[in-house]
Amino acid sequence: LGTRAFQMDEEEDLASQLGPRTSQVHDTDVSKLKRAFVNEKCAPEILPFEFDLVQRVVAAVDSRESVVASARASASTGPSSAADDLQTHVFQSELNRVRFLLRAYYRTRLFKIENHAVWTLKEPAVLARLSTLEKEYATNYANVVEEHFGSVLGQMPEGYGSMLQQIEEQDAAWDMVPEPNLDKHVFCLVKQDRGDVMLDPDDPENTMDLERNDIIMIRYRLIKTLLEDNAVDLM
After folding, report:
1. Residue 38 backbone phi and psi in degrees, to 5
2. Could you tell me the pTM of the whole model?
3. Which residues of 5-41 are buried (b: 16+ CB within 10 A; e: fewer)?
4. Is 6 helix (H, G, I), strand (E, B) or coil?
5. Cα–Cα distance, 134 to 122 (Å, whole number)
6. Most CB within 10 Å of its CB: which of 34, 134, 136, 203?
């Protein structure tokens, strides 16, 4: 009876952590992770890494994984009901869903780093958005690409062997480094009433009345600041 009571307490604790109807904190973190993933997926540039959020979610998932493992170990060595097995299965499915979100978030960011590795490394403001591991990955990836193309570019005529410039010139622009297209059109959901907002500083007359729950399609560059202020979510 004592072992069974302990297992029930563990399962109730697990439910309080994972159940979207009983744990507002967990539901908020998972919802934030989902929004972070969708924003990252839809934005043409890499966004700041959500370090605190990811750390909380990973810690919670790791903790709950051990509880689920213990519940399954107890079930394998003693009597368990179909309801207990179902509940454990539901909890594991929820954990798998959160882990999938984490992996998708990581993959999306790595895809952007690979597409714009050199540009990311040469722009301090962009580099600051990466986690420590992402910075290391970007540096290693850029070095591997440079080494890979070096054998080919080394055979080019003098002045044409750079993977950064069409014609090598000192202090010239890196005109062969791809950059994100900030003029790409995106869909976004307005989260706050902002009234009449000036979207383009270079064009004061270019304004739009933004109300909560509005859905608009607009160039990313024009709502970049609103996204940073958490006033809109991309869709």
Report:
1. -65, -45
2. 0.81
3. eebeebbeebeebbeeeebeebeebbebbebbbbbbb
4. helix
5. 14
6. 134
Look at phi and psi of residue 136 and say left if phi exceeds 0, alpha if psi is from -120 to 50, else beta: alpha
What percentage of the chain carries pLDDT values higher than 70? 83
Location of structure tokens 């697990």? 14
Task: Calculate helix-pair angle for 2-18, 51-77, nearest 10 degrees.
Answer: 150
- Quote the tokens at residue 60: 């919670």
Nearest to 162 by CA among 176, 180, 148: 176
pLDDT band at 124 (very low <50, low <70, confident <90, very high): very high
Show the CA angle centred on residue 43, arms to residues 37 and 47, nearest 5°. Answer: 70
Residue 191 phi/psi, 5° resolution?
-100, -15
Q: How far apart are CA 28 and CA 46, in angstroms?
A: 23
Structure tokens at 231: 């006033």
| Contact predicate 63/29, CB 8 Å | no
Helical (H) or strand (E) element with 232: strand 232-234
Q: Residue 150 contacts by C-beta under 8 Å, 6 or more apart in sequence? A: none
pLDDT band of 74, cuts 50, 70, 90: low
Cα separations in angstroms, 66 against 14, 86, 176, 230: 10, 17, 49, 34
Residue for token pair 């991309």: 234
